[in-house]
Amino acid sequence: MGKRVAVSSTGESLESPVDPRFGRCSYFIIFDENKGHRVVRNAGQALGNGAGIQAAQQILDLGVGAVVTGDLGPNAFRVLAAGGVQMFVRCTGTVGSAIEAYRNGELRETATATSPGHHGQGPHGHGPMGR
Amino acid sequence: MPQVDASKCTLCGNCRKVCEFHAIAVLPKEVMVFKELCHGCGACSMLCPEDAITEVDHLMGEVIMAEGGVLKLMYGRLKVGEAAATPLIRQVKATIPEGPITIMDCPPGTACTAVESIKGADACVLVTEPTPFGLHDLKLALEVTRKLKVPAAVFVNKHGLPGPDIQQFCDAHKIPVVGKLPIDRSIAEAYSRGALIAEDARFNTTFKKLRDWALSEAGR
Fold it and tell me: Does B160 touch chain A (CB under 8 A)?
């Protein structure tokens, strides 16, 4: 099996812009070295908590060996690093151009998380209830 | 929080499936626990088919007690960096002595922290305000009290604001409205001085009514 690469995407096509968020991106577009690509909905997107962990878990479950994205939080980073997944960050432009850049070896791997994490920014618990 | 015994774990992934808080990741060679997301519910350890998970203590804050006259104050102080307050609230509640009347100041909204606080109460006063946001959260909070089978009543703060009619909503849903506090600059001024609104003669009966409802629901 060739290496699989996942790009975080705002849409379902190769013309869609890269989603700058890893944990809460809309889709992952998964490229197989020899077999073209497929689109997978990010299971972590709408979670109240643990979006990065869930998204990273999904990446591991899909047998992906490298991710191309904008920002990575600390939890997602920990999971991906422990799973031996290569991480390429700060990518912009379309998914198609990002995968091209990856294939041409133009992207640099990150050895740290790139955003400070966002605990508990989910849909619950921010109401005033009369305060 | 869970501690995984690697010698028993088969990496089956059951623990992460049952974790409502996505605090567990199952990697090719290990199980990773994110303690700051863990609510200490115990589902993972209870449902581990290999019995590989034990629940261990994790210092996440402290329970603080103070006394003044006949009143005792208890609260939890979360350690900086901890994200989930629910286990600490559980700990504070477990420390409450049996007997005296206990008033709990709950977190706003309907998150886990609010649910944990309301759970097991004899009665619950839902403080709301006549705004679209207030009514929206009131509806959610009412569902929570119903699910927890805690009798609820509504207290309207900032009554007089030109918003939705809370009284009408409560009448339609057969929820008692036990009091209304007007939107009034003098209340805000008194509050900013540290004065208790309940001691303001104008609102004496308002707060007595609120107290009487709670005490009668609690059978005290």
Answer: no
